[in-house]
Amino acid sequence: MTLQLLAYGAFFLTMALTYAVICLGLNVQWGQTGLFNVGIAAFVAVGAYTSAILTTPETADRLGGFSMPILVGWVGGILAAAMVAFAIGWLTIRLRADYLAITTFGVAVTMQLVMLNLEPVTGGPFGIGFVPRPFAAWQGNSLLFSLANLAVLIVVTLAVYLFLERLVRSPWGRVLRAVREDEVAAQALGKSPKWLRIQAFTLGGAIMGLAGAVQAHFIGFIAPENYLPMLTFQAWAMLIVGGSGNNRGAVLGAVLVWAIWAASGSAIGAVFSDGSQARAASLQIVLIGVVLCIILLVRPQGILKEVRTVSRYGLAARREPGRAAEETKKKEALERP
Amino acid sequence: MNPQVLVDGLIAGSMIGLGAVGVTLTYSILRFPNFAHGEFIAWGAYLTLVLSAAIGAVVGGTQPIGPFSFGWSIPIAGLAGMVLTALLALILDWLLFQRLRRQKAVMIIIVMASFGASMALRSALEFIFTSNPAYFTRELQITIPLGSGLRATPDQLLALGVTAVVVAGLFYLMNRTPLGRSMRAVSENPSLAGVTGVDVGRVIRYVWIIGAALACGAGIIAGLLVQIRPYMGFDLLLPLFAAAILGGIGSVPGAIVGGLTVGLGEALAVQLLGAQWRAGAAFILLIVILLVRPTGIFGRRA
Predict the structure, then answer these.
(1) Predicted pLDDT of residue A288
(2) Residue A133 has pLDDT above 80, yes or no
(3) Angle A82-A243-A81 from CA coordinates, rounded to 5°
């Protein structure tokens, strides 16, 4: 019993962490840059399908049979999602911010169409099965298998988190927030807001693609219904609850909302009879929608507020003005060719 | 190519156009793309369905009018449905959007709230009515020839006619009445309009009422010609946005022209690629217009 519980706990946490990675990607786009993406599901799907096509064995009537290693699939997923994000970003970011929202929504709708109808590539409504799972050899031992997969997800999430934390504190991250807060001022300092936004949008899309690829290999099969607007909505709810602009908030929100989601799902399963469960599942969505609206009204900053990040040099300057100036001078001298 | 594409496209386009009028008005006057607008279409259709069934239950069923597939219960229930849908929009505004406006929330937060509201409203429909399609009527309709090989059912022709009348009415409202003038003023510059004595709150209420009533109309037409599903409005959302941007945000005639264009594009996609790619047409049109003329056909430079 304890073992089962442990295995379920590991499974739950693994799923939650795949969402955490999506949220980290969204946080680059929305939290750091203020870009509104309503097509998260599409970017996740691009990553998942690319990775699945690259790694699955030969199947009749479908592109594939490359049987590549899982890591190659992940890289493929990242690149494909980045390319889609770059194309969309390049196309719409020079226009108004709201057009990006509408276009990404269009991408999600179109991606659904492609998944459902482009059967030679995507396998149609039934999707792609037999996506290779990491540590498949241990599948007999469910606890060991779950823990190994959890470990994989912890490593991936941590890697993305640390990478982003570093990026947020880098000059690039500061310029990004400068663009978000005051575009004209950033422009006056010679920064190109448009180009920075495209970079951020592409990076966020790439991370979502990675999340999709990792999730696909964890579940073992993918189908269009995994990538409905519902997914986009969940990711948004997670980031907003956790606190947008805060990477720790993104992870916390993902685990928390996924827990609420799973708990409300089993509560509905217990309350409603078998016949009306599909119907009752829509109540879950109503609940999450209302919660999202209430949070936007009452606490738009989420649980964890955005941490003010300033340059290390700036902070040092405030403490010891003389020394910091010296350091900066030293650094500049070093950097000068 | 089959000329029937024209008829099919115009009929689908008139539905999209009716919905897009609401989108373009909220977009230009309240300044956000309302992702919940599709839900007004679906709620309008379901409200009309319930009211019509209630009327039918009280008077014991109505006979089809003339050549059409439906009885008197539908137009009566439709009018009441429009009132209720407008009420729904006003309640949503009061609960959500008005509060966000008062908090001076940035536009994207309001967009997100509309996204959340759309999810909640749609899923509520799914819970109440299940995801099985519903129909206003089970009557079969025979198409009548219109000459040169074109055919349409009486219902479809009625839909086109009603849309034409509504468009004429809207044109009059926007250009010849004090309300229309106030609406255009608020869309140009809300604070300036407020200073010069325009009741901005009243204008906003009318925007919701007009947008929601027309959305309900689009929902009834969609319900009569196709079917009623909880996702009917959500599936129309991309065509609605494409039409509003195509016509130029804030332009009512633009929304109608944009709607007809998107409808024709969809019919063309169905003809050339097959029905499963229908929704792709709106996306392609959207991308093309953003590349070529982001301000839309009738739009002004932002």
Answers:
(1) 79
(2) yes
(3) 10
Per the CB < 8 A criterion, the answer to whether A43 and A81 are in contact is: yes
Structure tokens at A275: 């016949």
> 10 Å Cβ neighbour count for B300?
11
- CB-CB contact of A63 with A53 (8 Å): yes
What's B228's DSSP letter? B
Nearest to A282 among B33, B126, B277 (CB): B126
- What band does B259 get if pLDDT is binned at 50, 70 and 90? very high
Tokens standing for residue B162: 């009603």
The residue with tokens 């009929």 is: B11
The two structure tokens encoding residue B229: 């599903």
Residue found under tokens 């010296």 = A326
Q: Which of B220, B244, B258 is nearest to B78 (CA)?
A: B220
Could you give the count of Cα atoms lying within 13 Å of A315 in the half-sphere of its Cβ?
A: 6
How many angstroms separate the first and last alpha carbons of chain A?
66
Write out pLDDT tens, residues A13-48: 999 999 999 999 999 998 888 888 989 999 999 999
Judged by a CB distance cut-off of 8 A, whether residue A101 touches chain B is: yes
pLDDT at A327: 56
Q: How many CB pairs (< 8 A) connect A and B?
A: 123
Residues whose CB is less than 8 angstroms from the CB of residue B66 and which lie 6 or more positions away in sequence, other chains included: B154
Q: Which of A32, A33, A36 to mutate to test the interface with B (most CBs of B within 10 A)?
A: A36
Alpha-carbon distance values, B162 to B147, B150, B155, B266 (Å): 21, 20, 10, 21
CA–CA separation, A330 and B63 (whole Å) = 91
State the average pLDDT over residues A176-201. 87
